[in-house]
Design goal:
The protein has 262 residues and is of the alpha/beta class. It has one domain: Rossmann fold, CATH 3.40.50.720. Helices cover 41% and strands 17% of the residues. It has a seven-stranded parallel sheet with strand order 3-2-1-4-5-6-9, with helices on both faces. The chain has a two-stranded antiparallel sheet with strand order 7-8. Helix 4 links the parallel strand 4 and strand 5. The protein is globular, with a radius of gyration of 18 Å.
Length: 262
């Protein structure tokens, strides 16, 4: 198994994205620590992992609360002995559906502020332990909107650009201590928005139903498909493993060819 003997913390572990990654980590042998704001949903994910034969523990943590994040990481390191892998799947509260000309600044800035704060705080908290042990992997997820212009997405593209830039800086500073920092770049993950039935026009001229969105999104890709949560989980497990030991300060490109590597 790719992650046997590893301790992995997943921030936002109760959501669809975090849950998919946590399940994949556990399937590959990791002891998984789920962190998030909603204990009931965290416990459901932990129960699913346990039922599948994996190991998972849950703790309520607000990833925007600096002191809470630090306390949780310190307690986790003391309990488990070390932190090997961290994955940030915290949602950003993106506001879509308006052109920038009509958008309030606070709505535009919300995902940027949330993402940068949660990424910084969680990375710093685990990195303090990883640098002392001389190894570790810190991961997160972005999407093609970091590399392409799309109308009516508010601050989402800027958010993903900021995450990728922040990851590169962390990687440059943590690399000498043996810590890798990378991200998984996706087409976007409509499965993570399964409760939404109506979507903005995104420059197409009319709002879209879920079926219309799923038919439209794959068109710019080379494979004619989208990144799935299963794809993300499998790739995250590989990227967190020693088999990806040379990968840092870069993306694992899961965009189905929509964003060619360069």
């Amino acid at each position: 198994m790719l992650l046997e003997g590893k301790n992995a913390v997943v921030y936002g572990g109760s959501g669809r994205v975090g849950g998919a990654v946590a399940r994949a980590f556990a399937r590959e042998g990791a002891r998984v620590f789920l962190a998030g704001r909603t204990p009931a949903t965290l416990e459901r994910v932990a129960a699913d992992i346990a039922a599948a034969g994996g190991s998972a523990e849950a703790a309520p943590v607000d990833a925007l609360d600096e002191a809470a994040v630090d306390r949780h990481a310190d307690a986790l390191a003391e309990l488990a002995g070390r932190i090997d892998v961290s994955f940030n799947a915290i949602s950003h509260g993106d506001v879509h559906g308006l052109p920038l000309l009509a958008m309030a600044f606070d709505d535009f800035a919300q995902p940027i502020n949330v993402a940068v704060r949660s990424q910084f705080l969680t990375t710093r908290a685990v990195a303090r332990h990883m640098t002392r042990q001389g190894a570790g992997v810190i991961l997160t997820v972005t999407a093609t909107t970091a590399r392409s212009g799309l109308p009516e997405i508010g601050g989402t593209g800027v958010t993903f650009d900021a995450i990728e830039s922040l990851c590169r800086q962390w990687a440059s500073e943590l690399g000498p201590a043996g810590v890798r920092v990378a991200w998984l770049q996706t087409t976007g993950l409509p499965e993570a928005l399964a409760d939404i039935d109506q979507f903005p026009a995104y420059g197409t001229g009319a709002p879209m139903t879920r079926a219309e969105l799923l038919a439209w999104l794959p068109r710019p890709t080379m494979l004619g498909r989208l990144t799935t949560l299963a794809d993300l989980g499998d790739a995250a497990a590989f990227l967190a493993s020693d088999r990806a030991a040379t990968v840092t300060a870069s993306a694992l490109n899961l965009t189905c060819g929509q964003v060619p590597s360069r």
